[in-house]
Specification:
Number of strands: 7
Radius of gyration: 15 Å
CATH architecture: 3-Layer(aba) Sandwich
Strand content: 15-25%
CATH superfamily: Cytidine Deaminase, domain 2
Structural class: alpha+beta
Number of domains: 1
Shape: globular
Oligomer: single chain
CATH topology: Cytidine Deaminase, domain 2
Largest sheet: 5 strands, mixed
Helix content: 25-40%
Order of helices and strands: HEEHEEHEHEEH
Strand order of the largest sheet: 4-3-5-6-7
């Protein structure tokens, strides 16, 4: 818990509702900006970077990777999730997504994020680091289908 407090992360009981400090938000956005620089988007020219914060305090990165066969493209958010899961992480607190116009995660990414924490904080920012919107995932994906739906 000390590490989480140092990062400015506060987790409230069973709700898993997370609040992160302004400094942690800014750090997460800056990490997403850095990830965006690695994006491979020769078709849309819409580079996306994501930085995913885990409950353990680690940050995992992702960028979009396009493909000439469009359905095979990988979104930045899902790339960050895959990187974290590959490292054994499953508890996610927040994700920052950076695009040129502070775009929101697509529906598919919202669904994948929902698999892990329907109450995680989603931070949307532009390439300059200006945060345009912050919302919990359950507000961006109401009436979602997730793990609890299968019980």
């Amino acid at each position: 818990m000390k590490l989480l407090m140092l990062l400015g992360i506060f987790v409230m009981g069973a709700l898993s509702m997370s609040f992160i400090s302004e400094q942690s938000r800014n750090d997460l956005v800056q990490n997403a900006i850095n990830a965006q620089k690695s994006a491979y988007a020769p078709y849309s020219n819409y580079n996306v970077g994501a930085a995913l914060l885990t409950k353990s305090g680690k940050i995992y990165f992702g960028c979009n990777v396009e493909n000439a066969a469009y359905p095979l493209c990988c979104c930045a958010e899902r790339t960050a999730i895959a990187n974290a899961v590959c490292a054994g992480e499953r508890d996610f607190v927040a994700i920052a997504v950076v695009t040129k116009n502070a775009g929101a995660p697509c529906g598919g990414c919202r669904q994948v994020l929902n698999e892990f924490n329907s109450e995680m904080l989603i931070i949307m920012a532009d390439e300059k680091g200006e945060i345009s919107h912050e919302e919990t995932l359950d507000k961006l994906l109401p009436l979602s289908f997730g793990p609890s739906s299968l019980k």
